[in-house]
């Protein structure tokens, strides 16, 4: 097993890697090795292939060319590249949000059988925020009106996105003064693509500022809409017990897995799996039942709302197929490795792609739309059941680990007894020093899950309450941090408070679009303390990030006033101007910066120090260095 310990800290991961090797399955880790050494120019952000006079590169040692063919220098090239990363990340989240708004619109028109409004009160509250008149209207008319109003946020007709009003007044003023208040969700992404065309914006500072505006259009626009509409359609998450890791797969049942991000498909699959006729069919085929589990963020969506078990995060997806126990995997979009179809071809697993936008080699394409989703989900679950008899030998290496999920802001406030006051009291007394949002991906450059787990372990030991999302949230759940037993690892103050509330020291807040839940929690605390988010004893971290979505998230966290520590270095080291602005200069203009620290223990130290500094400024009891 030694051989695999550098690749993943998880027992199921190590055992599955051994099995994959036996089965001659190539994994993401092997492909990563084959890429080494990766291009140094690209790592530093110094290569440009934006136009066809290039591709160009700038020599970081000052000996070769210092400008691309067009004359762009290192600062411009690096800023353009990072700007485009933000644009892609913001586009991904926001387009996911748009798909939900379209389902909401279809529900409003009675054209989405199977979907319904699960949270009419939340919908009415949002309608009020959007200025949609609710009087004398039925639920469906309000849904249609809200969907239309939200679609306006995507366009070009607004001066300010509607939900930016939720930010503390001081924060909104900072955005206005700096000229980064987001105006339209699609507009900011489109403008970033325009600005980064050859010969448009050649100011590295103005490019980065627009990057901030573009990221804010994600955090206070597309992602926030995605989360709010998901809650309206599928329910506000409440705490419920679930289980995690490869061990959630069942040897004697039909295993169906959902992979991707959008709950639009996975919710319908869940409904179809619960159909008694389907269970009867499964039994007639010799299975004991049908078992649904999740992968990545669509898995997090189901875990949060229904306690559906979670089989694994990003780097586990190939290995889950190698168990031979997956009868069908349905993918929507984002973070789905194009290798999965090839891996599945070595087993009996049926791979289904479901979104018009996302096709994969080795997958059968069965497209979901609001009108056909309920029927198609039924058909596919039936096909998964029929595939059960084609199974070969199955290897499920471990027992699952229990975890508590479902901590929406509403659920956290409810756990506190209906008001944030107990949390504020604990913060003031210093029993809880502060809060940290640990988010983001896995990346084969870092031992799988180690960044998340080591960081979180040290944070809770230092009385810092952790909220997490995405693949980070899956990592800490697998490590056993999402049950009250984990309070044994917490510092005395955190242990006392969480113990009294009967909550774990690490709270699962959902998928990656649900990072906005962390923002909303920050808003609630800032409002209660009558201050700005940047004054709170709070930090963010993405210890194993890989995705462009994470770049957008990091940027909107920082722009919202949250100091954010990244594990892997983003491709910016080719420009010391850009590095300095993002890690120092932003402090003066926006009240927060990025830091980069690959060692999770040291990253925890940075966060502790930051939290104590903020406590001191707020006049709360603080620890000396
Ligand atoms: O949206 S944490 S690897 S699955 S990008 Fe992807 Fe990263 Fe996982 Fe969720 Ni988020
Ligand atoms: Fe080269 Fe400039 Fe074209 Fe980039 S935009 S590829 S630096 S010529």
Instruction: State the major sheet.
Output: 6 strands, parallel
Q: Based on Cα principal axes, name the global outline.
A: globular
Identify low-pLDDT runs: none
Indicate the percent of residues in helices.
40-55%
Q: Could you tell me the radius of gyration in angstroms? A: 24 Å
CATH class of the largest domain: Alpha Beta
> How many individual β-strands?
16
Named at the architecture level, the CATH assignment of the largest domain is 3-Layer(aba) Sandwich
* Distinct small molecules bound, one entry per kind: FE(4)-NI(1)-S(5) CLUSTER with Oxygen, iron/sulfur cluster
Q: Terminal Cα separation, in Å?
A: 40 Å
CATH-assigned fold name of the largest domain: Rossmann fold
Mean pLDDT: 97
Summed up, the helix count is 25
Kindly describe this structure.
With 625 residues, the protein is of the alpha/beta class. The chain has four domains: 2-57, no CATH class; 74-234, Substrate Binding Domain Of Dnak, Chain:A, Domain 2, CATH 1.20.1270.30; 246-390, Rossmann fold (3-Layer(aba) Sandwich); 412-618, 3-Layer(aba) Sandwich (Rossmann fold), CATH 3.40.50.2030. Helices cover 48% and strands 11% of the residues. The protein is built from 25 helices and 16 strands. The strands form four sheets. Strands 6-5-4-7-8-9 form a six-stranded parallel sheet. A six-stranded parallel sheet has the order 13-12-11-14-15-16, sandwiched between helices. Helix 19 links the parallel strand 11 (434-438) and strand 12. The radius of gyration is 24 Å and the shape is globular. The two termini are 40 Å apart. It binds FE(4)-NI(1)-S(5) CLUSTER with Oxygen and iron/sulfur cluster. Residues 261, 296-297, 313-314, 335, 440-441, 470-471, 511-512, 547, 549-550 line the site of FE(4)-NI(1)-S(5) CLUSTER with Oxygen (BF8). FE(4)-NI(1)-S(5) CLUSTER with Oxygen (BF8) binds next to helix 13, helix 20 and helix 23.
């Amino acid at each position: 097993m030694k051989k695999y310990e550098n690749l993943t800290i998880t027992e199921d991961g190590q055992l599955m890697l051994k099995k994959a090797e036996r089965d001659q399955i190539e994994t993401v880790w092997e492909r990563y090795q084959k890429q080494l050494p990766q291009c140094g120019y690209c790592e530093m952000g110094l290569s440009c292939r934006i136009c066809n006079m290039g591709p160009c590169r700038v020599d970081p040692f000052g000996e070769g060319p210092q400008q691309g063919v067009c004359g762009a220098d290192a600062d411009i090239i690096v800023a353009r590249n990072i700007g485009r990363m933000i644009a892609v990340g913001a586009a991904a989240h926001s387009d996911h949000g748009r798909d939900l708004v379209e389902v909401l619109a279809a529900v409003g028109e009675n054209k989405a059988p199977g979907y319904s409004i699960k949270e009419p009160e939340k919908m009415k509250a949002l309608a009020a925020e959007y200025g949609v008149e609710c009087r004398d209207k039925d639920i469906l008319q309000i849904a249609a009106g809200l969907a239309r109003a939200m679609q306006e946020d995507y366009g070009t007709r607004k001066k300010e996105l509607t939900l930016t009003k939720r930010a503390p007044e001081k924060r909104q003023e900072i955005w206005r003064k700096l000229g980064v208040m987001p105006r339209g969700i699609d507009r900011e992404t489109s403008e970033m693509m325009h600005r980064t065309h050859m010969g448009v914006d050649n100011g590295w500072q103005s490019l980065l500022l627009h990057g901030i505006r573009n990221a804010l259009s994600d955090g206070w626009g597309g992602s926030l809409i995605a989360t709010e509409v998901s809650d309206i359609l599928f329910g506000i998450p409440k705490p419920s017990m679930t289980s995690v890791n490869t061990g959630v797969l069942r040897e004697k049942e039909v295993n169906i897995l959902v992979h991707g991000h959008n709950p639009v498909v996975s919710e319908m699959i869940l409904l179809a799996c619960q159909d008694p006729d389907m269970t009867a069919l499964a039994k007639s085929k010799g299975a004991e039942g049908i078992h649904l589990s999740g992968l990545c963020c669509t898995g997090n969506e189901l875990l949060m709302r229904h306690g559906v078990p979670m089989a694994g995060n990003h780097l586990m997806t190939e290995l889950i197929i190698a168990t031979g126990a997956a009868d069908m995997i349905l993918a929507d979009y984002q973070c789905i490795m194009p290798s999965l179809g090839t891996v599945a071809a070595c087993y009996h697993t049926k791979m289904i792609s479901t979104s018009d936008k996302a096709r994969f080699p080795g997958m059968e394409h069965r497209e979901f739309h609001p009108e056909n989703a309920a029927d198609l989900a039924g058909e596919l679950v039936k096909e998964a059941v029929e595939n059960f008899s084609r199974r070969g030998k199955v290897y499920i290496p471990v027992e699952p680990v229990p975890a508590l999920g479902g901590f929406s802001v509403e659920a956290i406030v409810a756990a506190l007894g209906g008001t944030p006051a107990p949390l504020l009291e604990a913060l003031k007394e210093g029993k809880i020093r502060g809060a940290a949002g640990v988010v983001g991906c896995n990346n084969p450059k870092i031992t799988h899950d180690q960044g998340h787990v080591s960081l979180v372990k040290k944070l809770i030991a230092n009385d810092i309450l952790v909220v997490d999302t995405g693949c980070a949230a899956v990592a800490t759940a697998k490590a056993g941090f999402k049950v009250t037993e984990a309070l044994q690892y917490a510092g005395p103050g955190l242990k006392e408070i969480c113990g009294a509330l009967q909550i774990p020291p690490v709270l699962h807040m959902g998928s990656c679009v649900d990072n906005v839940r962390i923002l909303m929690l920050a808003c609630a605390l800032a409002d209660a303390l009558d201050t700005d988010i940047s004054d709170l004893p709070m930090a963010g971290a993405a210890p194993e990030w890989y995705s462009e979505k994470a770049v957008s998230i990091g940027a909107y966290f920082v722009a919202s006033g949250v100091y954010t520590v990244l594990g892997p270095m983003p491709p910016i080291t080719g420009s010391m101007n850009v590095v300095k602005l993002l890690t120092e200069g932003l402090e003066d203009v926006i009240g927060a910066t990025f830091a980069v620290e690959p060692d999770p223990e040291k990253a925890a130290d940075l966060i502790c120090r930051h939290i104590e500094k903020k406590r001191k400024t707020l006049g709360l009891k603080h620890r000396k260095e």
